[in-house]
# Entry
Amino acid sequence: MKRYLPLILVAYFIGCLLLILVLARQWQDTGQAPEQPIAFSHPIHAGNLGLECTYCHQTVARSPQATVPPVSLCMECHKNAAIDRPEVQKLRGFWERQEPIHWQRVYQLPWHAVFNHKRHIKAGVDCSFCHGELKAQARVRQVRSLMMGWCVSCHRSRNAPTDCWTCHK
Ligand code: HEC
Ligand code: HEC
Ligand code: HEC
Ligand code: HEC
Ligand code: HEC
# Structure
């Protein structure tokens, strides 16, 4: 037994180290809420004004990507609406310069993993299950770590495919 003690200790420390690394990544990945070029508000647009998610994220139910709308869609209202607000004036600046807005991504898988919105929407998974309640997020904040274990455990419980190549191409 004594002979193996150093080995057991080393294994124990490596185990702890791995655990800390994994936890640190989970912690780092969730909760991030990058500052955006314009302070767009889901509580105002999806909450107070009651716009459907698909009014802006138009491809979410029919393609892998949800997509964020172009400035022209915002301008359908903001040629007139709330034009006295500084953040709306910023928006109109982008429009006048014909400049796209570079929104910071909040949810992003690493390059080797693929996701597909359409398939999840078709399967009846609600946006809020993965993105939280947007109506309550003044600034979009990542509420799920998007770790593989989370994806796979739901796939297992819902009889969705769990082969490696389902999510890795
Ligand atoms: C099963 C979990 C899940 C559900 C349900 C889901 N999403 Fe997503 N969403 C993700 C993941 C994962 C990413 C990151 C995808 C990537 O990096 O390729 C993402 C990214 C996004 C993005 C940014 C990238 C893009 O695709 O344009 C938007 C916008 C978005 N989701 C909106 C929505 C909306 C709106 C709904 C509901 C109609 C929804 N999502 C439902 C998991 C989900
Ligand atoms: C269907 C009409 C409509 C669309 C589309 C729309 N907005 Fe708005 N938006 C409004 C209205 C109305 C208000 C004022 C709401 C209020 O005062 O409660 C507003 C308010 C705002 C504000 C000011 C918020 C504040 O706190 O002062 C910003 C910034 C904004 N919108 C940005 C955008 C952007 C960016 C888009 C496109 C992605 C967009 N809006 C699309 C109707 C719209
Ligand atoms: C008026 C247009 C509009 C509506 C309605 C709207 N969104 Fe968005 N959404 C945006 C814009 C613009 C962004 C990018 C800026 C930001 O992150 O705040 C965005 C960002 C997001 C993101 C983060 C994307 C990323 O970078 O990973 C998610 C998730 C999302 N929206 C989900 C939803 C859901 C769910 C609903 C319905 C409850 C909804 N949105 C309704 C315009 C809209
Ligand atoms: C709420 C449970 C749930 C979560 C969480 C979830 N999925 Fe899914 N996913 C499903 C279901 C159910 C299907 C099957 C839909 C069907 O049968 O068409 C599916 C289908 C898919 C598909 C299409 C499979 C195919 O046959 O091509 C991909 C890709 C995928 N998921 C990736 C992911 C990734 C990556 C994550 C994590 C970031 C994730 N999913 C998280 C439930 C989930
Ligand atoms: C339902 C979707 C899904 C399935 C099925 C899946 N993965 Fe993943 N995998 C992911 C996602 C999402 C990530 C990125 C997040 C992370 O690192 O946990 C990932 C990350 C990884 C990584 C990188 C880990 C890291 O720390 O960067 C490896 C290696 C990997 N997967 C291997 C596999 C193998 C092998 C299988 C088959 C046994 C598999 N995956 C099945 C979704 C999936």
Remarks:
- Residues 121 and 127 are 8 Å apart (CA to CA).
- The pocket of heme C (ligand 4) is lined by residues 113-116, 119-120, 122-123, 125, 129, 146, 150-151, 154-155, 158, 160-161, 166-167 (CB under 6 Å).
